[in-house]
Amino acid sequence: MKKVAFIFSVIFAVALILFSFSFYAEPVFAYNFQNVPLVHDTDNEKNTQSDFVLRAKFSTKFATSSPNRKHNIKLAASKLNVKLFPDEIFSFNKTVGARSLERGFLPAHIILDGEFVDGVGGGVCQVSTTLYNCALLADLEILFVRRHSLAVSYVPSSFDAMVSSGSDFVFTNSTASPIIIKAIATDDELTIYIYGDIMTRKLVARSVVTKTLPYVVEEIEDNTMPEGEKQTISRGKNGLRSVGYIDIYENGNLIGSQLIRKDIYKSQKRIVAIGTKSLDTEPQAVN
């Protein structure tokens, strides 16, 4: 009986260690090979060109972003050196890993509950969005994607991909051959490439805004401003409803369109401060 109890305790301890490792270890994706030969790698140019062709590329710009946001984009993009085999699944969160100060990410603007606030890793969603669009154009199967609560400026509506600790972007290599994903970020532009076998059709993304959702104006009193004076605190921005399509071409001819998404993006309130400070002057002294 003691022997059985001892064996059970050993098994339980090993299981506990494995569980703890899987829960606390830094996320690593099995197919993120650091030394995978790339098509543009001149040392392997002959071999890779015979095996892979460019299926799609997609670029977004971030020239006006803050230095911290640019840093986060470049850091996340550096993780996207990936070879994915047929039917295997890509997880953005597992590949890029947690966005934390300990892992080198910095505070920058993020969208949270319909508002722009500072958060560690701001800008990483531009990387996931750029990859999402590239994956669509490469004709890969999207398994999970989520929009932002607000429309973003770097892609048309219905073509963004929000990621966070609780929301992933996931797709699978639905082709019959391996694919290679490579991201290159300069000081003002991010470009993602997907290589694989030859595509027999061309895919084009199309965004259609179906309705504008006007912003509301909120007035707040400010007793530090002269009575009647107005000052705009937040300019406001319309929200919208939109749909995303993929148009399919063969031999230069449009052969069909696929509706892939319907989205609603919130409006942002216009906030105006109204002065309430009295302008009464003190009575003048009479000689």
Any descriptors?
2 domains; disordered N terminus; alpha+beta; Resuscitation-promoting factor rpfb fold; three-stranded antiparallel β-sheet; 287 residues; single chain; 15 strands
Care to describe what's here?
This protein has 287 residues and is an alpha+beta fold. It has helices at 2-24, 45-51, 67-78, 92-96, 124-137, and strands at residues 53-61, 81-84, 89-91, 107-112, 115-120, 141-144, 170-172, 179-185, 189-196, 202-213, 217-226, 230-234, 239-250, 253-265, 270-277. The longest helix is centred in the first third of the chain and has 23 residues, at 2-24. The model is unreliable at 1-49 (pLDDT under 50). 21% of the residues lie in helices and 38% in strands. The strands form five sheets. A four-stranded antiparallel β-sheet has the order 1-9-8-2. A three-stranded antiparallel β-sheet has the order 3-7-6. Strands 10-13-14 form a three-stranded antiparallel β-sheet, covered by helices on one side. It has two domains: 27-199, no CATH class; 200-279, Resuscitation-promoting factor rpfb fold (Single Sheet).
Q: How would the blueprint of this fold be written?
A:
Blueprint: H1 2-24, H2 45-51, E1 53-61, H3 67-78, E2 81-84, E3 89-91, H4 92-96, E4 107-112, E5 115-120, H5 124-137, E6 141-144, E7 170-172, E8 179-185, E9 189-196, E10 202-213, E11 217-226, E12 230-234, E13 239-250, E14 253-265, E15 270-277
Give the low-confidence spans: 1-49
SSE-based structural type: alpha+beta
- How would you state the average pLDDT, rounded? 82
Rg from C-alpha positions? 26 Å
Helical fraction equals 10-25%
- The span between the termini is 111 Å
List the helices and strands in order. Answer: HHEHEEHEEHEEEEEEEEEE
Described by strand count, sense and barrel closure, the largest sheet is: 4 strands, antiparallel
Count of DSSP H/I helices: 5
What is the 3D form? elongated
Work out the count of structural domains: 2
Number of strands: 15
Strand order within the widest sheet?
Answer: 1-9-8-2
Q: Beta fraction of the residues? A: 35-45%
